[in-house]
Design brief:
Chains A, B: It comes from Prauserella sediminis. Chains A, B: Keywords: DNA-binding, Transcription, Transcription regulation. The structure is a homodimer. Chain A is of the alpha+beta class and about 260 residues long. A six-stranded antiparallel sheet of chain A has the order 5-4-3-8-7-6, sandwiched between helices. The first copy, chain A, has a two-stranded antiparallel sheet with strand order 1-2. In chain A, a hairpin with a 2-residue loop joins strand 3 and strand 4. The first copy, chain A, has helices at about 10-20, 30-40, 45-55, 70-75, 80-100, 145-150, 155-160, 175-190, 235-255; strands spanning about 60, 65-70, 105-110, 115-120, 135-140, 190-195, 205-210, 220-230. The longest helix of chain A is centred in the middle third of the chain and has 21 residues, at about 80-100. Chain B binds a DNA duplex (30 and 30 nucleotides) through helix 2 and helix 3.
Chain lengths: ~260, ~260
Amino acid sequence: MSGNVSSPGATVVSRVLAVLYAFDNGHRRLGVTELARRADLPVPTVHRLLRELVAGEALTRDSGGRYVIGRRLWDVGMLAPEQTELQQVASPFLSDIHAATRATVHLAVRDGTEVLYLDRLSGRASVPVVSRAGSRLPLHATGVGKVLLAHAPAQLREDYLTMEMRRPTVHTVTHPERLRRQLAVVRREGYATTEDEMTLGACSIAVPIARAASGSGEQEVVAALGIVVPTLKRERTRLLTALQVAARGIGRSLP
Amino acid sequence: MSGNVSSPGATVVSRVLAVLYAFDNGHRRLGVTELARRADLPVPTVHRLLRELVAGEALTRDSGGRYVIGRRLWDVGMLAPEQTELQQVASPFLSDIHAATRATVHLAVRDGTEVLYLDRLSGRASVPVVSRAGSRLPLHATGVGKVLLAHAPAQLREDYLTMEMRRPTVHTVTHPERLRRQLAVVRREGYATTEDEMTLGACSIAVPIARAASGSGEQEVVAALGIVVPTLKRERTRLLTALQVAARGIGRSLP
DNA sequence: GAGTGGACTTTCACTCAGTGAAAGGTGTGG
DNA sequence: CCACACCTTTCACTGAGTGAAAGTCCACTC
């Protein structure tokens, strides 16, 4: 190759992935030029890759000629065992909580320093919430996030506390010392709550899901289960109980 | 390349996709050799591609060293607008039906000659059903399938009737003339039912979801909504009403 | 504990698939 | 009409990709 790409170790595979990863929640429909910019690749290169990806049905073109993720990649994604096995086990329990509380129910895991939402059940009447399956939020501003952070490895937790934390609302707790104390409470009490920390007018409760330990010993927290409601009112105990029952059920059902 | 691959037009991109498409519902964890066989590529080639895909976090290796679809591909798949936009609009309505009926609820589209399940809500108590989000079944043996087939283009419908049809149970209707009459009834009545056609002991009702036409004219059926229950009992009317309310709601909410 | 079969990994010389600057279209707006 | 932005195609060069073959690892057998 004459000029070749700036970054070393550039293979076709890495370029293909760069193109695919250029899509995100806010950018689901992209043109060649924008994809090239986002993937940091020359336009003609991206253009050719896109043609081959479309030929392979990995991508499709929408009515406006822009490129979108296609059905077959969706299919492939649905085969990721890490996400879908947990999601599948949890699904009936989420339904139960949703039926019992009519609140928005979330299933989430920790991905690095973010909450990754695996599933969401929301009623029509419930609070509008940003999260959807596949979306990410910071660990410190949501109920499920606090649970996951509280049960993360100590090293990661301490690192997180020293990082710059986003403040979606004025109620978001970003003071390291205050957050550290909150997390200790979450571990001790077994649940986390937030009020107006991510979205004004939205409160949340969340509990950890632990893989049921065969013998004794430390239980590994694999995910978190949470609900979002307009206000916690007097309901806290009832909602918490529903969550904990479900979390235990999921933990027992895990392989 | 000295020998090169048998099939012409073999690019790296097509090879990568062949490797990814080698995964399916029954084969989520695969070794190099099996992947190579399924993708019809030489083992060393697949091996190198796999390494690069793992480096790019598209794939992961499970505890047994086998390759599985990774988190980032799941992420990417969740961005497919065709599947997820419909799924997202429909989600609260599925919750409503599920809460009202406690039955297993399905959202599905037609993909060629198959039903593609986009979402499923199942209670713990409900009939065990094979379908899950991302899985496919033949069009003629399920409620949602009959709805989608009934509203498919006439040409495709006729072609389908001449094809060999699988018979999961003895009650599956595969006789072309009988099925054609059933589909006419489905179009006229606006819903489809099955009893024991896919799974013994499972019945289903399904209705079409049509994009709400702005003016008058033909409404385009984009998906189907169905539930699966142990037996229809006297409940048929109530269940059907719940479904139809939801289907209209989704149709109105579509962009 | 040597032997055997199977799957996984690495090597390496050859060469053609991939590359990207440049040029050619296409469409929109001033 | 020109200017600008985006999409698409061309083409000569060359190193990234290729896959047969050889090497490694592991489990299971006799």
